[in-house]
Every structure is written in structure tokens, then in C-alpha cells.
Fold this sequence. Notes:
By secondary structure, this protein is an all-beta fold. The chain is 0% helix and 53% strand. Strands 2, 4, 5, 6, 9, 10 and 11 form a 7-stranded mixed sheet that branches. Strands 1-3-8-7 form a 4-stranded antiparallel sheet, with no helix packed on it. The protein is globular and about 45 Å long.
Amino acid sequence: QVQLVESGGGWAQPGGSLRLSCAASGITFISNRMGWYRQAPGKLRELVATITRGGMTNYADSVKGRFTVSRDNAKNTVYLQMNNLKPEDTAAYYCNAALQSFPYTNYWGQGTQVTVSS
């Protein structure tokens, strides 16, 4: 059974930091590009950041320079370090595992809420 379990969400003040973690099980971790997506109320889910098994990263323009995605292949875990948080970062954050070979399956975590306010 595939499980992606996010943790680390919560409340932060503008300018603050949070670190999200996503522990994966039931998948061959290194065969997956891992990523973080977010969805604010009334908006579509959007890409935040992705990281390949080799460490190549991709970021949404809105988070470049503030967020850092990383992964520990030995621990089957992907992280999102979020610095200089802004109110517009408020959303539910979802971990994603995208298999990089046939059948190219996508898995999602249950989401963790991040709220940025003063």
C-alpha cells in the first residue's frame, strides 16, 4: 500500500519559516520524481517544487529564492524548507510522487495546512 505522509505544517508569521516533510512507503522511492504542490481555497492546485532522484530541482516562480526542496533517498523522505513566508503562501500543501517510467503513476499525500498570518 502506497503512503505519502506529510508533516510540519502549521502557522507562521510573515517572514517566518516552516519545514515540511513527506515520508513515502510502498513505492520505489528513487524511481519517483518527488514534488510539492499547494492548493488555496477557491484556487486550482499548483506546482511548488519538484526534485528528481538525482537532485535536479524545479520551482514555481513565486517561491524561487525562498523555498528549497530536498530529498533523502535513504530515508524515503522529501522536504520543503520554506523561508520568508508570505500570506499568499497560505494553502494546503500536498506531497506528490511521480513514477518516471511506465505506467507513470502519480501518488498524493493527504495534505498539510500552512497558514501565514500576523
